[in-house]
Design a protein that fits this description.
heterodimer, A: 5-stranded parallel sheet, 4 helices, 5 strands, 31% helix, globular, B: 130 residues, alpha/beta, Hypothetical Protein Ychn, Chain: A, 5-stranded parallel sheet
Chain lengths: 100, 130
């Protein structure tokens, strides 16, 4: 299944709870303020790298760009997707859980 | 699909899970979730509710909203049974973190481990988040 997270990891625990309850092999897509979790050099980087071991991590490129960040700053192991990629993920997975 | 799985109109019954992660009165999410749960039940869907993070506070006994001028909707959780909404699940980690036990809740619930809750979500056809 696909999990989406749209809140900053520094504002809310949505990402933590998502990580705890997402099973190995599931896909997690960071969107809107959730993209801050995908950037290198933050307190959550280690957590994201660990999660990349057994989950598929994605981040929405347009939301990175909108926030003055660059795709080059994305942590290794997290795949940048565009809106078409978002649609593909939603279509490939049997259901979507939105962590708000 | 057998007859039991079909509604009279021929619609399919799906497994709906409503995931509640917010405390009851600071925002309208908890109340809105209840409204949507009742809609799901009215359409005879297979409804479950999960309470995670601050969502566990929705079930706390003894809510008294007289002085804040808001409707105390906690009795509604006890009425869900009448709408055949009987599957209420509480995340043990969230409950423990807030110093709560099953005895603190207005309704009987099933307390689930992280693994069990992950499995419950996997088992659904539709998940709605509040």
């Amino acid at each position: 299944m696909l999990h989406t997270v749209n809140k900053s990891p520094f504002e809310k625990n949505s990402l933590d709870t998502c990580m705890r309850l997402a099973k190995a092999g599931s896909a997690i897509l960071l969107i809107e303020d959730g993209v801050y979790a995908a950037i290198k050099g933050t307190e959550v980087e280690a957590k994201m790298k660990a999660a990349a071991g057994d989950k598929k991590l994605y981040v929405l490129g347009p939301d990175i760009k909108a926030r003055g960040l660059d795709e080059g700053q994305v942590i290794d192991g997290i795949t940048v997707v565009d809106y078409g990629g978002f649609v593909d993920l939603a279509a490939e997975n049997d259901k979507v859980q939105a962590w708000l | 699909m057998n007859e039991d799985e079909m509604m009279e109109e021929g619609g399919t019954i799906k497994k709906f899970l409503y995931v509640n992660r917010r405390a009851p009165y600071g925002s309208v999410y908890a109340l809105e979730s209840l409204e949507v749960v009742l809609i799901g039940a009215a359409f005879e869907q297979d409804v479950s509710m999960a309470f995670v993070d601050d969502g566990v506070y929705q079930l706390k006994k003894g809510q008294d909203t007289k002085d804040v001028d808001m409707k105390n909707f906690s009795p509604t959780y006890r009425a869900l049974e009448m709408y055949d909404v009987e599957k209420l699940y509480v995340d043990k980690a969230s409950m423990d973190a807030r110093g709560l036990t099953e005895e603190d809740f207005v309704v009987p619930v099933e307390v689930l481990s992280t693994e069990q809750l992950a499995e419950l979500m996997e088992d659904q056809e539709v998940i709605l988040s509040f």
